[in-house]
Amino acid sequence: MSFPSSARSFFLFTALIFFSVSGLFSLEFVIINKTDTPLFEVYAVPGDSKSWGYDKLPYDVILPGDYAVLDLDLNPDKPVNFRMVDEDGDLYLKYNVDISSRRKILISPEDHQVLSQDGLIRFTLVNKTGSVLRGLYISSENDEEWGDNLLNEYLLEAQEKILELQLSGNSSFYDIRLELAGESIVKKRVFISDRARVLLTLY
Questions:
Q1: Residue 117 clears pLDDT 80, i.e. is over it
Q2: What is the pLDDT of residues 59-69, one digit of tens each?
Q3: Using only C-alpha atoms, what is the Rg of the chain?
C-alpha cells in the first residue's frame, strides 16, 4: 500500500514535531566493553527516570574488548544513566553521564556494582555537617518507610564510619534523613554504591 506524497509529507512533519517537542533524538552510541566478561544487556534512560526500561541489546552480546553501536532515543541536553548486565547477572552502572558531546561509553571493571553474598553494599559515610549526627536513616527512593536508625546508639561527630546497606532492587538512589540536635534534614536521590564515599553536608 502506498501513500500520496502529501500524506507522506504530513507523517514526516508530524514525526518531526513529536521529537522536537519531546526533546528526543535518535543518537548513535558506541558501547565499549573494557571488562573481562561478556555484557548481555544494556539499558539507557534519562537521569531522572524511575525505571530502567527495556534491554537495548536484546539479540546481541558485547564480548570483552569488543563494542556495539546502538541508536538510542535520548535528549542530548539531559544526563543519562547506563546499566549493563553480564553473564552472571552482575551490574555495571554509570550515572548522570553527560551525552551533550559524548557518544562513546566505556564500561570498565570500576563500574562493577560489587555485592556481598548477603546482598549488602558497604560504603563510607563522612560527616561534613559541622554537627553531631544523632540519627541516620536511609531508604530506597521508592520506599515509603525509613526503617531503622543505622547509627543505633552511636553519635557520629566530624569523622567517618563504614556502614552496610541492603541493596534495593534495581535502584542505586536513596533518600537520607539526618537527625541533628534539634532538627531533621532530608536529602533526596543520593547515589550510593559499594565502596562509595558519601559526604553529608547541610547543603
A1: no
A2: 899 999 999 99
A3: 21
Edge-to-edge strands, sheet with 183-191: 135-140, 173-180, 183-191
Place of cell 559515610: 125
Is 94 in contact with 107 (CB distance < 8 Å)?
Answer: yes
What's the mean pLDDT when you consider all of the chain?
A: 80
Q: Where are the alpha helices (DSSP H) in the chain?
A: 5-22
Say if residue 146 is in the same domain as residue 181.
yes
For the segment 120-147, what is each residue's pLDDT rounded down to a tens digit?
777 888 888 888 888 999 988 888 888 8
DSSP helix, strand, coil percent of the chain (3-state; round to 5)? 10, 45, 45
Report whether 78 contacts 47 (CB < 8 A).
Answer: yes
- The pLDDT confidence band at residue 9, using thresholds 50, 70 and 90, is low
- The grid coordinates listed for 25 are 533524538
Closest to 161 in 3D by CA, of 125, 197, 134: 125
Same domain, 107 and 134: no
Is residue 18 domain-shared with residue 95, that is, in the same domain? yes
Domains of the chain: total: 2
Q: Over the stretch 90-115, which tens digit does the pLDDT of each residue have?
A: 888 888 888 887 789 999 988 887 65
Say whether both 37 and 55 belong to one domain.
yes
Q: What are phi and psi of 22, to 5 degrees?
A: -75, -20
Q: Is the pTM of this model over 0.70?
A: no
